[in-house]
Amino acid sequence: MRAQTVLSEIAVGLRRNLTMTIAVVASVAVALTLAGASFVVRAQVESMKGYWYDKAEVNVYFCTKADALTTPRCMNGAATDQQIADVKDALDKMPMVQSSTFVSAAQGYQLWRKMNPDSPLPAVVGPDAIQPSWQVKLKDPTKYDIIRSAFTGMPGVHSVNDQRSVMDNVFLLLNALQTAALLLTGLMLAIALLLIVNAVRVSAHSRRRETGIMRLVGASNLSVQLPFIAEAVVAALLGATLASVFLLAGHYAVIHVIGGRITFFHFVGISAVLTVIPLLIVAGAAMAAGAALITLRKYLRV
């Protein structure tokens, strides 16, 4: 069967069922956009984990005079210089500790004022209310539990906090969004498959006379079915192309519009999107071809 004839049959079929074709293209585009977005979100989460976990620090906070009134473990008053030095000595002996930096109450107060310039609290709260701390960077951030168990309860220590616990909440939200996107992707793919099946059924029914003639002149099953399969694949490829454009536009908008305002957020590069696009194109074409082939076996009877 000549390629020109096949292309002509495809064009006729797409024009004849224009409304159904538009519905197929739109549903496939939405489904594949959601699928691609979920993969990009996954890459974003993994990239953020690698970026921020390496920067995460463990903070060993010390008691202040104010804590003595509210915290039982600080009932003996503010931590002494010796107690602070004892923690430093213990940190230096731990092989998983990469470095440690002491942040005094005054330094912590200045940092707090910079982070909260519009807060009225600095006017009524002085440096004495800020807990001094050791900021500890670990060679392996997953070893946080060792630091926590070693220093929790030591004289003068108020608490041991890991910055990862804050970021884990962000990652939990992103993972929830990814799961929601995958569920919605499954729903949209099911709708797209139903539309492809209906489009092929309508096309086969409207051209049953032509296919009958082809059978009478000895055309093979492949020759009869190929135009219908090709129509579905072309519609799906159009949808995949739209999905690719949406993903690229979305990535551009995130990087150049949002990225410039959120400097602490580490966004994935364009390569993450370019890696997903071929998968979307192959998945769209395979989904359409499979649905069309199964439909033709059931409904194309001459």
Could you explain how this protein is built, in words?
It comes from Kitasatospora paranensis. Residues 184-287 form the ABC3 transporter permease C-terminal domain. Belongs to the ABC-4 integral membrane protein family. FtsX subfamily. Forms a membrane-associated complex with FtsE. With 302 residues, the chain is of the alpha+beta class. Helices cover 69% and strands 8% of the residues. It has helices at 3-16, 18-55, 67-70, 81-92, 105-115, 144-151, 164-206, 208-216, 221-258, 270-299, and strands at 57-62, 97-103, 133-138, 157-162. A 4-stranded antiparallel beta sheet has the order 2-3-1-4. The radius of gyration is 31 Å and the shape is rod-shaped. The model has no long low-confidence stretch (mean pLDDT 77).
